[in-house]
Specification:
This protein is of the alpha/beta class and 374 residues long. The protein contains 13 helices and 13 strands. The structure holds pyridoxal-5'-phosphate.
Length: 374
Amino acid sequence: MRIRDFGVEIWMNRWETRCRYNLAETCVDSLTLGALLDLAGLDQGALLEQLLAMRLTYGAIEGTERLRAAIAALYDTATPDDVLVAHGAIGANHLVYEALVEPGDVVVSIVPTYQQHTSIPESLGAQVRLLRLREERGWLPDLDELRSLAAGAKVIALVNPNNPTGSLLDGAALRHIAAIARRAGAWIVADEVYRGLDQDGAGTSPSLVDLYERTVGIGSMSKAFSLAGLRLGWVTAPREVLDAVSRHRDYSVISVGMVDDLLASLALEAREALLARNRAIARANLAALDAWVRAEPGISYVKPRSGTTALLRYEADLPSESLCLRLLEAEGVLFTPGSALDIEGYLRIGYANNPAVLREGLARTSAFLASLAD
Ligand SMILES: Cc1ncc(COP(=O)(O)O)c(C=O)c1O
């Protein structure tokens, strides 16, 4: 199977261990296991006892009932039977496209996006139609354009809240998109791994899972829940899709680990506390980023409304990869170049990582930009 190189993952694999200030990280500042237990009000000794007594079988093949119930509780309409657990959202997305897409199918993908949503369908022989988000529209899709692209499509793929732009489709926009998909008879693959990190209001916007009956919802412990080390994601979808996903899953997953299943259950059962902690980080860090952008003459952006990422437009006359490599070399600060996301002239920042790292990384970026201007 031929597939394009995964721009962002290649960039991260190469550089994320070779920087001092990682402003490319898209997870909220990851928790230690100890901190997770404290946040959840759980006793470390009791957990250790439970782990020591655990017989390490494959465990529940599709995820324990307890875990699937905790996942279903993230939606208004889902039950544990609507959920299938996978190895991260990356595993979930992969299985979903294998299950849904055949050669010749039309897939509409809203870009820039997480590259799985274009490159995997393409590798499976689909005709991939791109709907480009534009900065002047606040990185929100033109829904008239979506309506015309969706004619004859089997799947519409979107990431909401969006990576990399940080834009957010609210309930009204999602209903509109659902109506377009319904008319086209298309599935929506809704990658919602950043859901729960809105900058305003209660912090969690509606899920397409609750708004459109042919939604394949993707979620994960990695981003909004700051526990990427669990490598645990999920698919929430109607039975016919879950059955098709299961048939592919049997060839590549068997089960997620029992330890991951247990820890994800504990974390999701404490989701209010966990999301409150993570939203506080995302909000305070975005305020710091916003102040920096306002003060930095060569940088502008559309302020994110949710998630952990933003696209920074820069004025320096350099390709984004050269800019990133020079900044990394000079100051040890890592961004993701727009070129890795097929959107030249921008840098992606992940701003919800450790606050001190963000502050120092931005200060060093200012020094670097000033030296470029000299
Ligand atoms: C939109 C999106 N989907 C999926 C993933 C994969 O996440 P996971 O760690 O759950 O595999 C990422 C990671 O960056 C992402 O940004």
